[in-house]
User: Which sequence fits this backbone?
């Protein structure tokens, strides 16, 4: 006998952990997701507080903001619904900010950072809602809705905003050392576009506090600011390219005195294929004299003291990269020094006199929303999907960089700044050329030389190439 049964798909309990721990790239990405949530809540600021327990048995992270908060209805029907489309549907916050979240998974990043979460949120009308979550029960639950969660609501006179308290044991604590906090600071500094005009008058402040971690970790109490390098460039090219492929670029060179900015008309003769682009790229020479000039322009440390040469080079090594930003926030890992998405270093190896390397460039490419540009963020928050639009983005950005490279190349050649590079190129050509060796071998063979003489010639050639390499 045939029977028909109506069934429903029920996600397993551990599905919620898969969203957080498997889709969020790492601890840094998890923290950044929580920062973006504060921005989406129209908060003027967000405070990240890391504190180790007195006995070092674990730690807590408190993420607090002064946004519009969430009502009990928001908590039950939005916050507790994985992959909700709420932000994607609304697109803009009540105060007009473009929403950073769209996947409906960022809040579950807290499961990466600790074993439990205490949420407190207060709305503009004084409704306070609290939720306490332990992640372990989800691992063993057969179905997601088998785990019961208590949601409490009360009236309060507390100021509006949201406060997340995340706690983790010693295993979670061990994931945060001196290097990890240095990396987190770097990520936070690069999170927002270095040019404030992206936000206009919309201020958003990030504060980071770190206390009582093991001795090698220094306490931190700072307001995150972009690195001071951006305005101290040697060469710059910037401009806006419209969706129709037309635009105007502006080139400037700080190394040359009494020069005016050059306007460069650009016409791709077709649509960009990736929406409207706003590009700003700065390039820095790395010779000792150039580093001295960079310091003389006002490069200082965070206390305002001038940096030495080694510190200046380290800062360049740390803060290089061309980031891709959407609505003023960087899309990781584009722009990280270890992720050369434009293959600048590969180009420089082929043409070292003209092409710039990734450790010489700092900049950004501002892109439009996904439906306008075709540039789609991956669900795992690890970059953009490598589709046709992304390939177009790479090609156009490289074209803009090439415009700067040619002008920089001619300036350096005119001023005699490229002579060391010419010498390197000549030596490289000698190193990989075997023509001289072939001629010598042919001459010796014509003279009737024996095998030992030929081997001697080859050994001499090898020693000469080793000398060039050194």
Assistant:
């Amino acid at each position: 006998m045939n029977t028909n049964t109506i069934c429903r798909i029920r996600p397993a309990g551990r599905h919620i952990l898969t969203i957080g721990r498997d889709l969020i790239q790492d601890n840094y990405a998890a923290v950044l997701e929580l920062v973006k949530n504060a921005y989406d809540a129209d908060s003027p600021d967000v405070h990240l507080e890391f504190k180790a327990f007195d006995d070092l048995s674990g730690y807590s992270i408190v993420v607090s903001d002064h946004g519009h908060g969430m009502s009990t209805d928001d908590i039950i029907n939005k916050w507790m619904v994985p992959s909700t489309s709420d932000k994607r549907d609304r697109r803009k916050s009540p105060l007009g900010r473009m929403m950073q979240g769209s996947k409906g998974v960022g809040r579950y990043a807290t499961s990466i950072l600790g074993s439990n979460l205490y949420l407190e949120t207060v709305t503009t009308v004084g409704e306070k809602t609290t939720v306490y979550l332990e992640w372990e029960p989800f691992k063993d639950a057969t179905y997601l809705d088998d785990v019961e969660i208590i949601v409490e609501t009360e009236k309060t006179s507390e100021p509006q905003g949201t406060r997340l308290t995340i706690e983790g044991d010693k295993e979670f604590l061990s994931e945060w050392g001196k290097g990890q906090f240095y990396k987190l600071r770097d990520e936070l500094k690069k999170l927002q576009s270095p040019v404030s005009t992206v936000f206009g008058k919309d201020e958003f402040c990030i504060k980071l506090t770190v206390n009582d971690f093991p001795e090698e970790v220094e306490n931190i109490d700072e307001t995150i600011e972009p690195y001071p390098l951006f305005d101290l460039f040697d060469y710059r090219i910037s401009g806006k390219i419209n969706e129709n492929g037309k635009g105007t670029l502006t080139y400037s060179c700080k190394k040359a005195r009494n020069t005016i900015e050059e306007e460069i008309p650009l016409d791709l003769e077709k649509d960009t294929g990736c929406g409207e682009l706003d590009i700003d790229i700065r390039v820095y020479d790395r010779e000792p004299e150039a580093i001295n000039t960079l310091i003389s322009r006002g490069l200082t440390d965070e206390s305002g003291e001038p940096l030495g040469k080694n510190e200046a080079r380290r800062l360049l090594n740390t803060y290089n990269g061309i980031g891709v930003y959407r609505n003023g926030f960087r899309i990781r890992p584009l722009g990280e020094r270890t992720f050369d998405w434009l293959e600048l270093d590969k180009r420089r190896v082929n043409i070292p006199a003209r092409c710039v390397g990734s450790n010489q460039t700092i900049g950004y490419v501002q892109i439009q929303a996904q439906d306008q540009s075709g540039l789609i963020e991956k669900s795992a928050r690890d970059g953009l999907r490598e589709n046709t639009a992304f390939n177009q983005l790479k090609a156009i950005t490289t074209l803009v960089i090439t415009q700067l490279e040619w002008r920089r190349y001619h300036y350096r050649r005119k001023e005699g700044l490229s002579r060391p590079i010419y010498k390197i190129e000549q030596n490289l050509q000698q190193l990989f050329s075997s023509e001289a060796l072939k001629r010598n071998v042919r001459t010796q063979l014509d003279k009737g030389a024996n095998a030992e003489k030929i081997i001697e010639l080859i050994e001499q050639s090898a020693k000469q190439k080793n000398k060039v390499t050194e």
In short: Residues 388-414 form the longest helix (27 residues). The chain is about 35% helix and 20% strand. The first strand starts at residue 45 and ends at 52. The domain at 15-223 is CATH 3.30.565.10 (Heat Shock Protein 90).
